[in-house]
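Checked the freezer inventory, then went back to the computational side. Two predictions to log before the end of the day. The first one is the construct we discussed on Monday; recording sequence and tokens without edits.
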Amino acid sequence: MGFYSGGADDRGRTLEGILAWADDTLENVHDYIQWVFPTRAGSGVNPSAPLVTDATISAFMSPALQDRLRRALNRMLEFYGLTSSTTSGGSVEITIDPSRFAQRSRNWLHPGNHNHLRLTRMMESLQALGLEAEAGALQRCLLIDVFGREGRNRITRQTYEYWSGALR
């Protein structure tokens, strides 16, 4: 995938450039997430974004591309007030970042927010591109940590269902 190998999207933006954006820019620009986290399904918001194909999946077996995908994930987790770590046993954990979540969640943790769809896309993309552990850890965090502790009245039932069904 050219974008993940140092190429640019249809607007001339690189992965490195996008990952360096301030939180406000990540929030207010709506056509980058489809490039950073591609899926098999096309996007009505950004029809020129790449789709995951069998060739894309094969390319993402590369440790270098997986590392870049993890960096993209970690940047977005920071944006949402979440954090990723690896346990001593090698398992991936995604949890609420106590130093950022209260402030960052004010931006996205309310019914009908477009970031809920972004999070669904992220899980689907991570799974499709070989980061199944990260996809599962994000799903667990959203369903248990975020919804279970923080968001029962701040996330719609429909969002909960999207998050629940994001991984196959």
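The second is the one RB wanted added to the comparison set:
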Amino acid sequence: MRIRIYHDLNDLPPAFAELFAEAGRASVYATRAWFANLAETAPEPNAALRVYAVEGGEAGGNGALGLLILRAEGGSDGRAPRRLASLTNIYSMLFMPILAEAAGDGRTVLTALARAIAGERPRIAQIQIEAMDPASPIFGAFADALRAAGFVVQPYFHFGNWYEETEGLSIEDFMARRPSALRNTVRRKERKLEKDHSVAFRLIDGSPDLEAGVEAYQKIYAGSWKEPEPYPRFTLGLVRAAATLGALRLGLLGIDGEPAAAQIWLVGAGRATIYKLAYDERFKSLSPGSILTRRIAEQVLARDRVREIDYGRGDDPYKSQWLSCRRERWGLLALNPRTPRGALLALRHVGGRAAKRAWGRLGTRGSE
């Protein structure tokens, strides 16, 4: 098993294309297109891409076994980092090390990754991995691997994620699960809107309407209550990348010939994420956002037959009205007590007992 470090996704050997394809069948957020857009359109100051690629296989083969896609901070161009962080930010819904099916439960690959990072010189003081699913076996296995490599590890809550299991549901079934106040409001508002106004609904998943849809989305966002995006190129890049994956569902609601509301949903592996939403403030009293949510839900239930809809990041009150179940995404903070910064942070974030246990483990193995 070999671990190599790359600083550009384009430099990965061809074997990793199949690993990305395999991972993408399980999650949009594990595709190469997702990571490439994030790296290109949402760079962090003083950080560089750092990709740990695990190769191996029978008889010294060079099969792709795993990827850990990180950002590095410190050193020249991120090549001698003091801190590593997952390639995530405020747009990320889910992150995990990418493991090949051939890697089994992945513990061997995760152990190799943790040891490789622990063995780097200069030493890595801190690793922070965000947006992980704590219910996944990978979460606990990676935490164990980091501890075994000498890091002090602190799991932490990151954000809530509201969702609904929808397998086999029609839109009527889905709406029947909603609180009566929401259900009745949407029905009443939609009837009134269709009676008093000209209404147009479009659901765009790719060419030839993609660029027109992007233009309409931008116009609606500019007229909405939302603050300007910190990375304005990210969403547009995501829309185009998702279209190439077949994952895009860009819903647009027009009222009297004007773009009134837009929502970006991502669909893949039987799941739909309500990713971005906005409406023009001029149409607020007509509830265009709620009407559009119902219409897109109708389409993804009937056409895509998704078994789950989720609402992305956060515990905004309106999300629990539309989706009734909640789960959490957690992070892992791994601190290296062999470094002054890591030891200080371990005492601050984890506590003296945990730091002492880590020092004890290091002592039993001897100094390096």
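For RB: DSSP finds twelve helices and 13 strands in the chain. The chain has a mean pLDDT of 92. Let me know if you want it refolded.
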